[in-house]
Amino acid sequence: MYAEVFMFIRSGSFKKYILPIVLTVSISLLLLFAACIIIYNMEDPDAFARTASLASLFTGVFISGMIVSRINGFDVLSNLANGIAFTVLLMLISLIVGSSGTGAGGFIILHAAVPAVYLAGGFFGKRKSKKRTLRRSGKGRRR
Fold first, then answer.
1. Distance (Å, rounded) from C-alpha 80 to C-alpha 58?
2. Angle at Cα 133 formed by Cα 132 and Cα 136, nearest 5°?
3. How far apart are CA 112 and CA 132, in angstroms?
4. pLDDT per residue as tens digits for the range 68-82
5. CA nearest to 104, candidates 116, 118, 114, 91
6. Is 138 a residue whose pLDDT tops 70?
7. How far apart (Å, rounded) are the C-alpha atoms in residues 53 and 75?
């Protein structure tokens, strides 16, 4: 049993499919915790609670998209699949817990924006290709 788990962790599928979800959840929860501490110390925490939670969600998704594209390389389909998988996880959690104050249209738009932000983070986090620069020959240069 332990050998199969160890082999799964060492395989590329763990790094490509499971690690991004775990990373996205952990970064988003860490940013949400920081936002809760900041909001709790304000005079009117209810006014900024929704904004801070959405900011921490989208910032966490963007940062994890950047990190995952650094680890796995930027692949549009892979990043889009990871963003959709995280959206499905968010929808399941929000169905269990319940979402208040958002209509059906806002619910769908907010959850549809998560894969797009994940993809944008992956695009900004991709490694820059090293282009070869051709050296000019010394002909024609003035000294």
1. 15
2. 145
3. 39
4. 888 887 778 888 888
5. 91
6. no
7. 28
What is the C-alpha separation between 125 and 139, in angstroms, rounded?
Answer: 40
68: tokens are 């995952």
One-character DSSP codes across 65-115: HHHHHHHH---HHHHHHHHHHHHHHHHHHHHHH---S--HHHHHHHHHHHH
Convert the pLDDT of each residue in 27-73 to its tens digit.
Answer: 988 998 999 999 988 888 888 888 888 889 899 999 988 988 888 87
pTM of the model: 0.74
Give the mean model confidence (pLDDT) for residues 129-133.
62
Report whether 71 contacts 15 (CB < 8 A).
Answer: yes
Domain ranges for the chain: 18-125
Q: Alpha-carbon torsion 35, 37, 40, 44, what sign?
A: negative
